Amino acid sequence: MYTKDWHLFGWISLGMGCIGLVICPFLPESARWLVSQGKCEEATKVLVKMAKENGKDGNKDIIGGDVKYLVDENKTVPKGSLRTIFSNGRLCFNFIMLTICISTSTFMLDMTYLNATHMGGYKFLNVIILFAAGFAGGSVGGLFMIVWAKMRRPLQQSGTNFFLLLFVHRLQDSLSL
Length: 177
What we know:
This protein is mostly helical. It has helices at about 5-25, 30-35, 40-55, 60-75, 80-85, 90-115, 125-150, 155-175.
């Protein structure tokens, strides 16, 4: 049932991350996100398709008018940025607490992973190094997916998980000499 070789578990985990990246282009985009990006025609198509699937009247002119109104209304609202998070004290505190919670979750997962694999060397240093790799993998994956996927949520989450698993897998591969 158990294997002393952690490579199999690492490749299975990495494969699951790849599945998320493969299926994301086939997921429909959120009409709310399309409206927030000012993409009227695409949002109208999504809403008309949803109306038809729900058996409702999918009048493109009415829905398109509503979408244009929402886009115009959305343009008057100031856009948030990363600077906004750090300029507002409460948002900054929440962001830091969320980062600590995610890092702790990753840390616990990595500690369990290390205990299961019996990696050689100084075990506490291995835990800290692996935690750093997990944090770096999640951060780089998240930033890459924000830039590359233009904030498409499912793709961003799948990409973050993929890069996290890739970093952890590669680091563990290089540490086990």
